[in-house]
Amino acid sequence: MGLFNAVMALSGALDTDVSEHEKLARHTSFRIGGPAALFVTCHSYHALRHAIEQLEHESVPWVILGRGSNVLVSDDGYEGAVVTLGNEFSRTLIAEDGCTVTVGAGTVLARLVNEAYAKGLSGLEFAVGIPGTVGGAVSMDAGTRDEWIGRLVQDVLTYKPGEGIKHYRGSDVIWGYRATSLPHDEILLEVTLALKQAPKTEIRDRMERYLSRRRHTQPQAVASCGSVFRNPPEGSVGKMVEDCGLKGFSVGGAQVSEVHANVIVNTGSASASDVLAVMQEMYGKVREKFGVELQPEVKFLGFSRR
Pick the catalytic residue: 29, 90, 227, 271? Predict the structure, then answer.
């Protein structure tokens, strides 16, 4: 693959930052992962299109990365280009009706939640404390068991390499549990959300209730990627793993959280192989005890057979 040619073509390109051998542990909430051959930040749509065209022309594999909040990166890193969305994709625009919000996919979800509160806009309270970007949240329909971001979406804009901009109405997208029908080969650019006006005191109260619940049910101030397995249609992975006696189980620096058994935390020195070993133990014990084959919710990057 033409990594050298890709570097030469993208270095100095307008609205584009390029670095080589960037440690991905710096860009994931797990704080785990080896280097990416290329790390490209695109600050505009034209920069993104140019970067993807060059990478595909040089046969360099690429992947879009947000805040890396649900990603496990291999200890060996990624032998391709990691592309992130910069300035132009972090903008928020409120329509004249005061309730319709168009937001770039690279916007940090926590920032959007706080901006909505500051403007007296309700609907996103459930998302307080959820890490990652708006693009990541929409692509996996992030939320709780009762509320999720897809129900707020009016429109989605994506970029399909080789074809250009695509538009989807929110009502045309199938929103599922941690999944959507949006094509996997398209890059989410921006999303329009339908919020509603509400007293800021009511919004703050709801946000505080969600935060309090998360503080009591999820580990705080530790590196993790959130839930590592999807909940089956019936039952809770956390409860099943706990019933298997695996709370606190560890391999190296990776440990099943004492707070929530469907979360693996990095106690400070965890490697990706440590995390995989803990996941394999969780998977095996749950299958043995309950006959349930757990499905990963975490995404894998840089592994040969994932």
Answer: 227
Let me know: does 73 contact 34? Beta carbons within 8 Å: yes
Digit-coded pLDDT (tens) for 93-127: 999 999 999 999 999 999 999 999 999 999 999 99
Q: Would you say 62 and 82 are in contact if contact means Cβ atoms under 8 Å apart?
A: yes
Is 271 a known active-site residue? no
DSSP-derived secondary structure letter, 230:
P
- Point out the catalytic residue in the list 58, 88, 186, 297: 297
Q: List the CATH number of the domain containing 277.
A: 3.90.78.10
208 falls within a domain = no
Q: Which residues contact 216 (CB under 8 A, 6 or more apart)?
A: none
Domain end marker among 62, 88, 114: 88
Which is catalytic among the residues 49, 111, 151, 178?
Answer: 178
- Is the pTM higher than 0.90? The answer reads yes
Per the annotation, the verdict on 213 as an active-site residue is no
DSSP state of 154: E
Cα-to-chain-centroid distance, residue 15: 23
Structural domains counted in the chain: 3
Residues 99 and 190 in one domain: yes
To the query of whether residue 297 is one of the catalytic residues in this protein, the response is: yes
| 31-64: pLDDT as tens digits | 999 999 999 999 999 999 999 999 999 999 999 9
Structure tokens, 281: 């133990």
The CATH number of whichever domain residue 41 belongs to comes to 3.30.43.10
